[in-house]
Write a structure and sequence with these properties.
- One of its GO terms (molecular function) is phosphatase activity.
- This is Protein serine/threonine phosphatase with extracellular sensor.
- Pfam families: SpoIIE.
- Keywords: Hydrolase, Membrane, Transmembrane, Transmembrane helix.
- InterPro entries: Bact_Sigma-Reg (IPR052016), PPM-type-like_dom_sf (IPR036457), PPM-type_phosphatase-like_dom (IPR001932).
- This protein is of the alpha+beta class and about 625 residues long.
- The protein folds into three domains: about 140 residues; about 80 residues, no CATH class; about 240 residues, PPM-type phosphatase domain (Phosphatase 2c, domain 1, 4-Layer Sandwich), CATH 3.60.40.
- It is about 65% helix and about 15% strand.
- It has 17 helices and twelve strands.
- The chain has a six-stranded antiparallel β-sheet with strand order 1-11-10-6-7-12. Strands 2, 3, 4, 5, 8 and 9 form a six-stranded antiparallel β-sheet that branches.
- Helix 4 runs parallel beside helix 5.
- The longest helix has about 80 residues.
- It is flat.
Length: about 625
C-alpha cells in the first residue's frame, strides 16, 4: 500500500506539472493565432491600398465615392485596433509603437485617398476636367488637331509614366503656341488643370523620400516588421516552455521509475519467499504420494496464496477422478455417435439421390422451353422450388377450335413444398391432362372440374383434408387475340404500355373450403401487340428481405412492372425484376417455392381486321 501510495503521488505531481505547462503553451498558441489573423488583415489592407494607388482605373471610383472609401478605411483600422487590444491584454511598449504607426498610416491613407480623388482618371477629378476642356478645344478648333493631339500624347505619357520630361515638353509646346496670334484662351485653363494633376502626383509619388506613398509604405513595413518580431518572441517563449515541460517530465519520470523499481524489488522478494515455502510444501505433499497434507496445511502462509493452494489441491484430486470418469463416458458415446453418423450419412445420401431423381422426373413433366417457344414470342421462367422438388407447376396445351389456334396455359401453387407439394403437383398435372382429354377447354369449366376431382381424390369418408392448390388458367386465341381467364386465389397480370392490368382470381382454392361456392366465372379481354402476360405464385411476393425483414409484396412487383417502357423487350423487364428480387432476398433463406413467368403471346397476323372485345366485369384492375 505504501508503494502504491507513493507511486500515485508521483503520478499526481506529474499530471499537475503537465497541466500547468500545457495551459501556458496553449495560451501562447492562441496568441500566435490572433497575431497571425491580425497580420493577415493588415496585409490584405496593404494590398488593397497598393491596388487603389497604383491602378489608375480606381481613381474615378475613389473620386466619385471618396467618403465611402474613407469610411471603409476607418472601419478597417478600427477592427485592426480591436484585434491589437485583444492580443495585448496589458499595455506595453510594443502596443504603443504599433498603435502610433497605425495612426500615422491612417492619416497618410486619408491623404492618399484625397490625392487620388483630386486626380481622378476619366470623368472625375482634375483629369476629367482637363479632358473636358481639351475635347471642347477639338470641337471648336478642328484646324488645331495635330497640336492638340501632341499635347494629349504628352499628357497621357506623363500620367502613365510620371516622368517630368513629358510635363516639360507639354509646357514647351504651349509656350510656343502662345507666340501665335491664333492661340486659344482655353489652353490656359487646360494648363492649370494639368499643373494641378502634376502637383498632386508629385505629392503622391515624386517627392524624394517624402511623398505620401513612400511614407505610407515605410510605416506599413515598420508595423509588419514589429509584428514579425513579436511573433518570433512568442514562438521562442512557447519553445522555452516546451523545453521546461520536457525537463520536468524527465525528472518526474526518473523519480517514478526509480520508485517503481524499488517497490517491485520489495514485492517480488516478499512473493518469492512465500512461493519458495509453497514449493517446498508441495514437494513434500507429492513425495507422500498425495496421502498426507498435514505438512502443507501447517506450512502454507496465512494469506491468499495459502488459501489458493489449499483449494487447488482439493480441486486437483477431484478433477483427476472426474476426468477418469469423463474419459470413459466420452469414449463410449463417441463410438455410439460414430455409428449413428455413419447410418445418418447413408440415409441422407439415399434420400438426396431419391430427391434428385424426383426433381428430374418433376421437371420432365413440366412444359419444355421448346414447346413454349412455339407459341410465345418470348417466354421467361423463374422456377426455384424451396427444396429440390416443390409444389409449383405450370401446364400448357394447344388446340384448334373453329379454325383458330388456341393456347391453354395454367400456373398452380400446391399446398406445402418439398415432397408433399411435389405429389400434389403431379396429381394436379395428371388431372388437368385427363380433363383436357375429356374435351374441357374453357378455363372456368376446367377449374370447376379440377376442384371436384381433387376433392374426391385426396379426401376420404373418415377425414376431410385441407390440401389443395391455388391456380390461374387462361386461354387465348392466336387469331382473334381474345383471352379468357379464370383463377382460384391467383391473378393474371397484363403489362401494357407501362400499365398493369390485373385480372383477379376468385377467393376460393382448389380443395376443401367452408365457403358455399357453386362455380368459377370466366373473365375475358382482347390482347394487344406487345402485351406481356405475367403469372406468379405467392413465393415471390411472400419472400422476406435479408435487411428489411419485410415481404417483397405485390406493390413492389407491380411498381417494377409498371416502369417498363413502351415496346420494351420481355427479357429486359425480366432481368431487371430478377436482379431486384435477388438483391432483396440477399443471402436470406427462401420462404417458399417460387415461380414467376413473363409470356409474350405469338399472334397470327390478320389483314384488314380489328378485333376488340370489352372487359367482361369490374374485376379487372389497372
Amino acid at each position: 500500500m505504501v508503494v502504491l501510495g507513493g507511486f500515485g503521488f508521483v503520478l499526481l505531481v506529474f499530471a499537475s506539472f503537465s497541466w500547468y505547462f500545457n495551459q501556458r503553451i496553449h495560451e501562447k498558441q492562441s496568441l500566435l493565432i490572433k497575431l497571425d489573423n491580425l497580420s493577415s488583415q493588415i496585409q490584405e489592407h496593404k494590398d488593397w491600398m497598393e491596388e487603389i494607388t497604383n491602378q489608375r482605373f480606381w481613381y474615378d471610383s475613389v473620386a466619385k465615392n471618396e467618403q465611402e472609401y474613407r469610411r471603409k478605411n476607418s472601419f478597417t483600422h478600427e477592427n485592426i485596433r480591436l484585434k491589437l487590444n485583444d492580443i495585448f491584454s496589458e499595455s506595453n511598449q510594443n502596443q504603443v509603437l504599433i498603435g502610433q504607426s497605425l495612426n500615422n498610416i491612417q492619416l497618410i491613407e486619408d491623404r492618399i485617398l484625397n490625392d487620388v480623388a483630386k486626380i481622378g482618371f476619366k470623368e472625375y477629378g482634375y483629369i476629367g476636367k482637363m479632358r473636358e476642356v481639351i475635347h471642347n478645344l477639338e470641337e471648336e478648333f478642328p484646324q488645331f488637331d495635330q497640336q492638340i493631339l501632341s499635347l494629349r500624347r504628352h499628357e497621357k505619357d506623363y500620367i502613365m509614366r510620371n516622368d517630368e520630361n513629358y510635363a516639360k515638353s507639354l509646357h514647351a509646346e504651349i509656350e510656343l503656341w502662345k507666340l501665335r496670334k491664333d492661340y486659344p484662351a482655353q489652353l490656359n485653363q487646360y494648363l492649370q488643370y494639368f499643373d494641378s494633376v502634376r502637383s498632386r502626383m508629385q505629392l503622391l509619388f515624386a517627392i524624394q523620400k517624402n511623398n505620401h506613398y513612400s511614407t505610407w509604405t515605410a510605416n506599413m513595413t515598420t508595423v509588419q516588421s514589429n509584428l514579425r518580431q513579436l511573433r518570433g518572441r512568442i514562438i521562442q517563449e512557447s519553445y522555452d516552455l516546451s523545453n521546461d515541460s520536457l525537463k520536468i517530465q524527465y525528472i518526474i519520470s526518473g523519480i517514478a521509475f526509480l520508485a517503481l523499481i524499488i517497490g517491485s524489488i520489495y514485492i517480488i522478494r516478499n512473493i518469492s519467499v512465500q512461493v519458495s515455502r509453497l514449493q517446498k510444501s508441495m514437494n513434500d505433499f507429492i513425495a507422500s504420494n498425495y496421502q498426507s497434507d498435514e505438512t502443507i496445511t501447517h506450512q502454507l502462509p496465512k494469506n491468499e496464496i495459502g488459501q489458493i493452494s489449499i483449494h487447488f489441491l482439493k480441486m486437483a484430486r477431484k478433477i483427476k477422478w472426474d476426468l477418469h470418469l469423463l474419459e470413459d463416458r466420452v469414449m463410449r458415446r463417441t463410438i455410439a455417435l460414430h455409428e449413428k453418423n455413419v447410418q445418418l450419412e447413408k440415409q441422407h445420401t439415399e434420400m438426396m439421390d431419391s430427391l434428385r431423381y424426383a426433381q428430374k422426373l418433376q421437371e420432365s413433366l413440366l412444359v419444355s422451353r421448346k414447346q413454349l417457344a412455339q407459341h410465345f414470342e418470348q417466354a421467361h421462367i423463374h422456377y426455384t422450388p424451396k427444396n429440390l422438388v416443390g409444389g409449383d407447376f405450370y401446364w400448357m396445351k394447344n388446340f384448334r377450335e373453329n379454325g383458330s389456334d388456341k393456347i391453354l396455359f395454367a400456373l398452380a401453387d400446391c399446398t406445402g413444398h418439398g415432397v408433399p407439394g411435389a405429389l400434389l403437383s403431379v396429381l394436379g398435372m395428371n388431372t388437368l391432362d385427363e380433363l383436357f382429354a375429356d374435351g374441357i377447354r374453357k378455363p372456368n369449366e376446367l377449374l370447376d372440374s379440377l376442384r371436384k376431382t381433387i376433392l374426391r381424390r385426396i379426401s376420404s369418408s373418415e377425414e376431410q383434408r385441407m390440401d389443395g392448390m391455388d391456380i390461374a388458367i387462361f386461354c387465348f386465341d392466336k387469331r382473334s387475340r381474345e383471352l379468357h381467364f379464370a383463377g382460384a386465389q391467383m391473378p393474371l397480370w397484363i403489362v401494357r404500355n407501362s400499365e398493369v392490368i390485373e385480372l383477379n382470381g376468385e377467393r376460393v382454392p382448389i380443395g376443401f373450403t367452408y365457403m358455399n361456392h357453386l362455380e368459377f366465372k370466366s373473365q375475358y379481354l382482347t390482347l394487344e401487340e406487345d402485351d406481356k402476360l405475367v403469372v406468379f405464385t405467392d413465393g415471390i411476393v411472400d419472400q422476406f428481405g435479408m435487411e428489411s425483414n419485410k415481404k417483397f409484396g405485390k406493390k413492389q412487383l407491380r411498381y417494377i412492372l409498371s416502369r417498363s417502357l413502351n415496346n420494351q423487350s420481355s427479357s429486359v423487364l425480366y432481368n431487371r425484376l430478377m436482379n431486384q428480387f435477388a438483391f432483396w432476398k440477399g443471402e436470406g433463406e427462401q420462404t417458399d417455392d417460387c415461380t414467376f413467368l413473363i409470356l409474350e403471346p405469338k399472334f397470327v397476323k390478320v389483314r384488314n381486321s380489328k378485333l376488340e372485345l370489352p372487359i367482361s366485369n369490374g374485376k379487372v384492375e389497372v
